[in-house]
Amino acid sequence: MSKTFELPDPGEGIHEAEVVELHVSQGDEVDESDILLDVETDKAVVEIPAPFTGRIEQVLVDVGDDIRVGDAVLEYEDSETGEETESTSAEDDATQAADPGAEEAAAEGDTEPSMEEEEAGPSTPQEAEAAGDEPSSGADAEGADGTGGRGSPVPAAPATRRLARELNVDLEEVQASGPEGRVTPEDVRRAAGGEGAAEDEGPAEDEQEEEPAEGGGTAEDEQAEGAEAEAAGVETEEAGAQAERGEPTEEESREAAPPGIRQATEYEAPETWGEVQREPLRSVRRTTARRMAEAWRRIPHVTHVDHADITELEAFRSEHDEALDDADLTLTVFLVKALVAVLKEFPRFNARLDEESEEIAYLQYHHVGVAVDTDRGLLVPVLRDADAKSLKELAVELRDLTEAARERGITRDQMRGGTFTLTNPGPLGGDVVTPVINLPQVAILGVGRARKRPVVVEDGAEDGIEVRLVLPLCLSFDHRVNDGADAARFVTRLVEVLEDPGAFVRHL
Amino acid sequence: MGEMSVSTEVLVLGGGPGGYAAAFRAAQRGLDTTVVTDEADGLGGVCLLRGCIPSKALLEMTGRISLVRAASEAGIHFSEPEVDLGALQDWTDDVVDALVSGLDALAEGRGIRVLEGRGTFESPSRLRVEGAEVSVVDFEHAVIATGSRPVDLPDTPFGGPVWDSERALEMEEIPDTLLVVGAGYVGLEMGTVYARLGSAVTVVETMERILPMVDVELTAPLRSHLDELFDDIRLGSGVESLEGDEDGVEVVLDDGTRERFDAALVAVGRRPRTESLGLEPIGVELDGKGYIPVDETRRTGVDGVFAVGDVTGGKRLAHEAMREGKVAADVIAGEPAAFDARAVPAVVYTDPQIAWCGDLAEEDRSDGAEVDVARFPLRASGRARTMGAGAADGLVKLVTEVGSGRVLGAGFTGRHVESLVTEATLAMEMGATAEDLALTIHPHPTLSEGLGEAAEDILGLPTHFSSSDEAEEDR
After folding, report:
1. What are phi and psi of B335, to 5 degrees?
2. What residues form DSSP beta bridges with B395?
3. Per-residue confidence at B27, pLDDT binned at 50, 70, 90?
4. Model pLDDT, residue A97
5. Residue A508, C-beta contacts closer than 8 angstroms, at least 6 positions apart
6. Integer-rounded Cα radius of gyration of chain B
7. Does residue A132 contact residue B182 with C-beta atoms inside 8 Å?
8. Nearest CB to B293; choose among A115, A166, A411
């Protein structure tokens, strides 16, 4: 029986390749995993192995041909008819393993027929009437198992099926260890490791393992590694348990090896040590958790701390506080005003790092986010175009935004688009804070509590000590974008502005 | 604040079970979520406002009438009940209202924006809203969950004495004679309510059996109960014409018989609400029947646009829509979710109830499996016997794969079987076998023993009855 071999996806999203060498010709007998041809993509030369054992009937391509994934390369006859189905499935494996997208496409292909089958019940509303408002129970089973009626689905619990999706494992490919062929979570994790699968599923998989040695690591290889690492991270305890059981097969010994220092440790449940009350992470808390972890993971943070003498600023502030009828001229308002002035002098702090294009994007607008503590958690409303607004305008807008945030009237838009964030927990106390940068921004200013302190002042030639009001300023910055020297200059300049209330008058 | 537009990460169009489940899950996943519903009565959709919940309230309460009558078999005699229709309606409304405000509170607590208005897509990232203070919603992801509406008969629009299921739930009057067109679950449930309240109910059905899509063995005990409850059940009869006038309806059946009724309930199915949503301009395609095709992650063909519930076809049941909604929200949140349910249970709330999951066919199965079938008659159930009022007229049917014993389907007919089907559904999801069920201790005396007994029968070791073969002969 003659079969067609099509070009499998060589990985890395390559769809086209040039045939650079043919290793087989008509009449050749090949064994599974023999190299059939070499193709060159714009990344590398890739050897394409045979996923079958058989005789080449016809080679359909020539050296120099540009061929696409899925194009027919050659026709062959399976020599081992007894294993015909097996080698066919090996071919499928090769294609699927090679193309992360293929699995998705296959899944979609599955879903469509099942949709059709569900629809294939009553074909008019009147027939639907007869059908009693429901599709047939036959359609039910087919639609439900998601296999388009190709047979019974692989037995596995819902949580196991979710794990399989997470680890990109096809349940059909997993060797089941549970009773009556039930797939367990451990089976899925083992399959995700790649090794377990290779053991039983033919050389096609082995080839895929070997390929990257030359190709320099294909996408699917990285993906497989990622999945493995993920699985390992999740199940350190699991691995430990297996090690204890002592089943030193080749595959498992790798899994059971002591966790490397890169792997996260899993701790015992807190209930182990006493009573625990649990509260689900919801809404703002959850978002904050996600964003902070992401920022901390992605940004190399450095915090630079200095102090500003705001004795005169405070005098100026309390003098003019009354001038605004309905809004408070708070220190935060002055800080925003001072910040935008300094940000204009140091535009690399009002920027984004475009990791994709490897560019620094200098933002030509100054939208300052101000962290607000609410009963829902931390919200950061944004003062848009803060540089174009007067102290009074900023005071009124900040009051409105803060109230909206605390009374849940704030919209998502009012919290987006910030270019720099100010967080001022000072009134609650604290000296040095090391705030986490609010992605995708590149810096954040944290402010400690203004305290009266003994300050050494120069009085002519003599040093004296005076009681001054001192404000700690803590700038966390993304060290990929700015250096310590930049931060020092930035904060020094900010101190200068804050220590010179006249500067504000000039901006009023 | 009088704002005209809002931006949101997840827009959910429709506030029914599919829509609110999607919105709740999206909010729980930390996504900014907005629901747009054209329901003035709040969240809940047809199911809560004019479907599952009010109909179950009426079935439950009117069911007491038949139970009370049946108590005389055990020597307890009641006088005929008096029915205060207004009070019954008020109580049903209270049940619905309490649940609606519960949903509203949950939505608020989860920070979900709910806009009442009619939404039309303007682009794959913008919805125009009419009738709300917000007129534009810009979104990153959309979940279409607009549900379905009842289908009317050709040339016979709903109105006057021609009722759809929603009108039938209003309980304004009890017609002396009621024609029910369609012996699906809606027709039989509402027919049951009106029959218990005194209507002479006639059911007309084009197919040769009631509940045509339910396993025939499960419907048999119901059929004999309904023969007593209803005036007439005419199977294999199509409606030639149905016309409403001031005094009621005149129906002509396809065998030429002409008859009058005080009212007619037309329950011939539902069609998806996919028209006038602006779907085609944004590239969401519909199939021939107006359903939105989706993949198992609930994605339509358009990036960022998902669909769940009745608009996508399927079994068109609330719990299926809820799962689909959660899947869509999880997928949007980046979770590895997919609608991969192995079994979607279904319940018909007649007396006796029918509940099932999976495929109950003995031959010509869609999965091609060879199966063993066990049947446990509720006559052998101590608990069913103690309930009286015909509760022992039912059965448990269990279908397992030959060899592995894997559960592939289960069906139940009897009282309260709504709560029995869940065990079988879990068994199917977990890939459990007949042996697993047989070795699970079922409390005695309960109806749940029926499934354990059926599983034992698969293993050839039934306790409270002889064998499925014998049960078959009995029937």
Report:
1. -80, 155
2. B377, B413
3. very high
4. 37
5. A390, A391
6. 24
7. yes
8. A115
CA distance A59 to B321: 51
CA angle A112, B330, B323 (to 5 degrees): 65
Is B213 within 8 Å of A135 when comparing Cβ atoms?
yes
Partner-chain contact A122 B269, CB within 8 Å: yes
Please indicate whether, in this complex, the C-beta atoms of A140 and B358 are within 8 angstroms of each other: yes
The angle at the Cα of A112, spanning A110 to A117, to the nearest 5 degrees, equals 100
CA–CA dist A402, A410 (Å, integer): 9
Residue A237 has pLDDT above 60, yes or no: no
Structure tokens at A430: 């604290």
Distance between start and end Cα atoms, chain B? 69
The residues, any chain, with a CB within 8 Å of residue A123's CB and separated by 6 or more, are none
Look at residue A223 in the predicted model and tell me its pLDDT: 44
The predicted pLDDT at position A259 comes to 57
Task: Write out the two tokens for B415.
Answer: 């009282």
Reported confidence tier of residue A151, pLDDT bands at 50, 70, 90? low
Q: H-helix or E-strand containing B328?
A: helix B318-332
DSSP β-bridge partners for residue A336: none
Look up residue A208 and give its two tokens.
Answer: 């895929």
CA distance A453 to A318: 19
pLDDT 10s digits, B181-196: 999 999 999 999 999 9
Q: Three-state DSSP class for A245?
A: helix
Cis amide bond preceding A440, omega within 30 = yes
Q: Which residue of B has its CA nearest to A136?
A: B213
Beta bridge partners of A382: A369
Chain B residues inside the 8 Å CB shell of A156: 431
ipTM above 0.85, yes or no: no
β-strands B5-13, B33-37 pairing: parallel
Return the structure tokens found at B284: 């969401």
Amino acid at A313: L
Full-prediction pTM beyond 0.80?
Answer: no
Angle at B240 between CA B239 and CA B242, to 5 degrees: 75
Residue in B with minimal Cα distance to A161: B340
The answer to whether residues A42 and A17 touch, using CB atoms and an 8 Å cutoff, is: no
In degrees to the nearest 10, what's the CA dihedral of A491, A495, A501, A505?
-20
Q: How confident is the model at residue B469 (pLDDT cuts 50, 70, 90)?
A: low
Q: Do A140 and B287 touch (CB under 8 A)?
A: no
Cα–Cα distance, B345 to B412 (Å, whole number) = 11
Chain A / chain B CB contacts < 8 angstroms? 204
Q: How many CB atoms lie within 10 A of CB A494?
A: 23
Token readout for A191 is 């399959």
- Report the alpha-carbon distance of residue B189 to residue B172 in Å, rounded: 17
- From the list B110, B404, B429, the residue facing A180 with the nearest CB is B404
CA-CA distance, A217 to A196, in Å (whole number)? 20
Nearby residues of B331 by Cβ (< 8 Å), 6 or more positions away: B297, B298, B299, B306, B337, B338
CA distance A237 to A245: 12
Q: Is A392 helix (H, G, I), strand (E, B) or coil?
A: helix
Beta carbons of B367 and A145 less than 8 Å apart: yes
Task: For residue B343, give the nearest of B279, B262, B399, B276 by alpha carbon.
Answer: B399
Query: Contacts of residue B151 in chain A, CB cutoff 8 Å?
Result: 125, 128-129
Annotated catalytic residue B444: yes
Q: How confident is the model at residue A434 (pLDDT cuts 50, 70, 90)?
A: very high
The residue-averaged pLDDT of B93-114 equals: 95
State the average pLDDT over residues B297-315: 96
SS3 A416: coil
What confidence score (pLDDT) does residue A194 get?
53
With 0-12 CB in 10 A as exposed, 13-18 as middle and 19+ as buried, what is A435? buried
Number of alpha carbons in the 13 Å side-chain half-sphere of residue B246: 0
**Residue A464 is encoded by which pair of tokens?**
């004296």
Q: Which amino acid is at B158?
A: F
